[in-house]
Fold these 2 entries.
Entry 1:
Amino acid sequence: MYDLIIRDGVVVDPVQRALRRSDVAVSGGLICAIGDLAGHEARATRSAQGLYVTPGLIDLHTHIYRGGSFWGIDPTRIAWRSGVTTWVDAGSAGAHTIDNLAAQTAGHDLTIHALLHIAAQGLVGRTGESADLANLDVDAFAEAVSRHPSLVRGVKVRIDPSTVGTNHLLPLDRALTAGRATGLPVMVHIGAGSIPVAETLDKLRPGDIVTHCAGPAVQGFGSDPVLTTAIRRAYENGVVFDIGHGAGGFLFSAAEGYLSQGLVPQVISSDLHQLSIHGPVFDLPTVMSKLLAIGMDLVDVVTAATVAPARALGIPGGTIEVGKPADLALFRVETTPEPLGDVYGEVRPSTQRLYNESTYRAGRLLPPCWPDPPPATLPLSSEQERALGELDAAARALLTRSLVHPSHVRNQIPRP
Ligand SMILES: [Zn+2]
C-alpha cells in the first residue's frame, strides 16, 4: 500500500532524455516505483491523464530574501502553482547578511540554496553593490561559506556599469578568487553597457555560469564577430549559459540567435523578483514556454530547469528516480497560441504553453497560497493594476460564498 500513486501521466525523464507513459508511486516522501502500477493500491490516487509529470523544477536564479534585499519575494506563494520545488537565491545575500537568510530559510518546506554575493552587503539596494571594492572581501566570503556550507553553492557577481562603477572587471576577478578559494562556481550577470561581454566570458572557468545570457548585453550576437567568437569559445569551454529572464535579461531575438547557431542554453531560470513577478516573467513555466515557442524541444526545456541546474551547482534533485525524494510537478500543455513577451515587449505566439496542475514536495501536495501584493513603491501599468484587482475580486467571490448547500453539511455535533 503506497501513500500516493500518480496514474497515467507522461513522465518526462531528463536523465534518460525520454518521455514515457507511466505511473509513479510515492511513500514516506520518496519515489517508490515507476511503471505500470495497475492493481497496486494507495491511500491517495491522482490521475495525471493528459498531463506531463516532471521532476520538481529547480530555479537557478531567483531572489527570495524578503526583508533583506530590494528584490526579495516569498517563494511559497509561487511554488505551489509553478512546479518549482528547489529555489536558488542568486546573490541577494553577501557575507554580512547571509546569516539572516539562513535563519529565514532554515526548515523551509521548499529546498533552498544560495549563491553568495561577492559584495558583502549583497543586494540590499537596487544596484551599485560592487562600486566600492572594500565590500568585496574574499576572506569574509570564505568565512561565510564555512558557516553555511549546505546553503551556499556558488558565488554571484553582477558586471554592468551601474553595479561596478569605475571598477570594470575587478569585481569579477574578486569573485573568481573567491570561487577558487572555496571550490564554488561563479555566476556572473552580464548587463548592457560599457563593459565588453567578450572580456567577461574569456575570464570564466569551465562550470562557471553566465546569467542573462540572452539579454540586451548580447544583442550583437551574430553580427559582432568578437562577441560571437567569445560566446562560442565559452560555450565550448564548458561555461554554463543560463537564461535568467528577469525584468531586463531576456530578448527573443538573442535567444533565437543562440538556437540558430546550434547553442542551446543549458539552464532556463526565471530571475523572479519584485520587478519581474508581475510580468514579464510571471513564473518559471512561462519562461520555459518562451523557449518552447522559439523552437527548443520539450525534453530539453525540462532538462534545463531540472537536472541541468542541479549539476551546475552539484546539488541533488531534478530527476524522477526510485529512492529519491518525491519532488514532482504535473503540467498541462496548451497548444492554442497565446502571446508571450520578452523584456522589450517583443511578442512570440506560444506553441506549447506549460501550466502547472499540481506540485509535490517530498510527496506532499503544496496547497494554494495567495500572492503577495506588489510593494507600494512599484510602478505598474493600468492593465497590471486592473488584473490584480480582478484577481482579488475573484478570490473574494469564491471564498465569501457558502462552501456547499446546507443539506450537504456533515453534522459535527449529533443531536442528543
Ligand atoms: Zn537576479
Entry 2:
Amino acid sequence: MTYRILVAYASKYGATAEIARKIGQVLTEAGLKVNILPAEKVTDLSPFDAVVLGSAVYQGHWRQEAVTFLEDYKTLLAKIPVWVFSSGPTGSGDPVELSRGWHFPSEQQSMVNRIHARDVALFNGVLDTSKLNFAERNVVKEFSAPVGDFRDWHAIISWAVSIVASLRPEVGE
Ligand SMILES: Cc1cc2nc3c(=O)[nH]c(=O)nc-3n(C[C@H](O)[C@H](O)[C@H](O)COP(=O)(O)O)c2cc1C
C-alpha cells in the first residue's frame, strides 16, 4: 500500500503556503506520496496515512481555516501521525524567543494534545507591508514588528527531515 501524507496549510499572504510546499517537497524527495492543499480545500481525510498541518499566526491566533480543519477532523487525526506548525514571528533568531516564549495558540493546545501531535513547530515568518490592509499596517506599526522575509529554510527542511525519520518504521523502509 502506498503511504500518503497530506500537508494542509492556512495562509493569508502566501508565506505559510510556501513553507508547506517546501515541507511537501522534502517528503516527496524522500519517496512519500504527498498532497499539499489549503486546509479549507480538504474534503476527505480518509486517503491519508499522516497529516502535517500549518497556519500563519495573526494577533496570537491561528487562521480560522486551520482551526476548522482541526475541529472537523479531530477523530481521524487522533488515529494517525500528525505534525503541526505555525508561521509567525518576524525577525532573525529563535522564533520562540522572538515571541517571548509563545509557542502555539492556547485555544488549540488541548486539541493538539488530544490528537497526540508528534511535534509542534514554530517558524519565523514574513512581513511585507505592501500587501497589508490599513488595519494590519497599524497593528504592525504598534508592535514595531520587523519587516522582511525571516523564514529559516534550514530549520524548515530539518523539521521535514525529522518527519521522514519518524515515519520510516510506519512506511516500512
Ligand atoms: C496584522 C498582523 C498581525 C500579526 N500577528 C502576529 C502574531 O500575533 N504572532 C506572530 O508570531 N506573528 C504575527 N504576524 C506575522 C505573521 O504571522 C507572518 O507575517 C506570517 O508569516 C504570515 O503568513 P502568511 O503570509 O501565510 O499569511 C502578524 C502579521 C500581521 C500582518
